[in-house]
Design brief:
Helix content: 55-70%
Number of strands: 0
Number of helices: 12
Distance between the termini: 16 Å
Keywords: Hydrolase, Membrane, Protease, Transmembrane, Transmembrane helix
InterPro entries: MmRce1-like (IPR042150), Rce1/LyrA-like_dom (IPR003675)
GO molecular function, one term: peptidase activity
Order of helices and strands: HHHHHHHHHHHH
Radius of gyration: 19 Å
Protein name: CPBP family glutamic-type intramembrane protease
Structural class: mainly alpha
Shape: globular
Low-confidence stretches: 268-272
Length: 275
């Protein structure tokens, strides 16, 4: 593990994202309206690309163009067992369905079922692709994960990245959107739940990546599937409370993450990097 390389990546990532997000948040300081939201969105989307851009810049500096080429190649690793594509679809659906069931049981009515909601799925996926997955995964799972794997087990690497991932999102807590803590008064339970979710998701994505030859494409697709919350589209009356449903979905993530750890699915020996 090259400490200087990691340091440069993390400094670049946080400076890029946090500076842009803070500038964007400044436009909202005088009130949220169409104009201020429009300006914020520019800086929000630019900031989201901090990890990917920093991964490319750091790789270029330390490993040259050949290193950048090897990093970019991970975006195009698609020949993986079919079951991992199925996991990408099914796991987020199951997590959200658990969240909906818990909401219905303990919070309130979930409303009617919209049979035509599937028509909006392509639009949601296309729009969501640019709001996180493309901007983040080449950095987190393409660059950072293999670096940590040189010293730590896959599980420990995933947990460390999950913690970094959580800290990276902090400025967006004060934004109207961007995290499950955003747009609401900041309180301990949502923050702890959000932290737990990111740790679990980091472990799950790491499991997918190490079983798909280091494919960043798989990480992007899973991240997109999680963000999209497809199951929620079929219950439009939950749109106003979608954050609570997603936070409740952490129960399913915890259960599945526990299964991966107990069954040693992350091959937790050190230095087990993939080619």
């Amino acid at each position: 593990m090259n400490r200087k390389k990691l340091f440069v990546f993390l400094i670049l990532t946080f400076l890029w994202s946090w500076i842009l997000w803070i500038i964007g948040l400044n436009y909202l300081s005088d009130g949220i309206n169409q104009e201020s939201i429009g300006k914020f969105l520019i800086f929000f989307f630019a900031g989201v690309y901090g990890p990917t851009i920093s991964g490319i810049i750091t790789t270029l500096f330390f490993d040259g163009l050949i290193g950048v080429f090897e990093l970019i190649k991970k975006l195009f690793i698609w020949k993986v067992p079919l079951k991992y594509y199925i996991y990408i679809i099914l796991l987020p659906l199951i997590f959200v369905i658990i969240g909906i069931a818990l909401y219905s049981q303990y919070i309130g009515e979930i409303g009617g079922f919209d049979e035509l909601a599937y028509l909006s799925i392509p639009t949601i996926l296309f729009a969501g692709l640019y709001a996180g997955p493309l901007g983040e995964e080449l950095g987190w799972r393409g660059f950072l994960l293999p670096e940590f794997q040189k010293r730590y087990s896959n599980l420990k690497s995933a947990i460390i990245i999950g913690f970094i991932w959580f800290i990276w999102h902090i400025p967006l807590w004060w934004a109207p959107f961007g995290t499950l803590v955003s747009g609401e008064p900041i309180s301990l339970i949502p923050v702890i739940t959000y932290f737990t979710m990111l740790i679990c998701l980091s472990i799950i994505i790491t499991w997918l990546v190490i079983n798909s030859k280091g494919s960043v494409l798989i990480a992007i697709l899973f991240h997109l599937s999680i963000n999209a919350g497809i199951a929620l589209l079929f219950y439009p009356e939950l749109n106003m409370d979608f954050k609570k449903v997603h936070l409740l979905s952490s129960i399913g993530m915890l259960i599945f993450t526990g299964f991966l750890i107990v069954k040693n699915k992350l091959k937790t020996s050190a230095n087990n990097t993939y080619k």
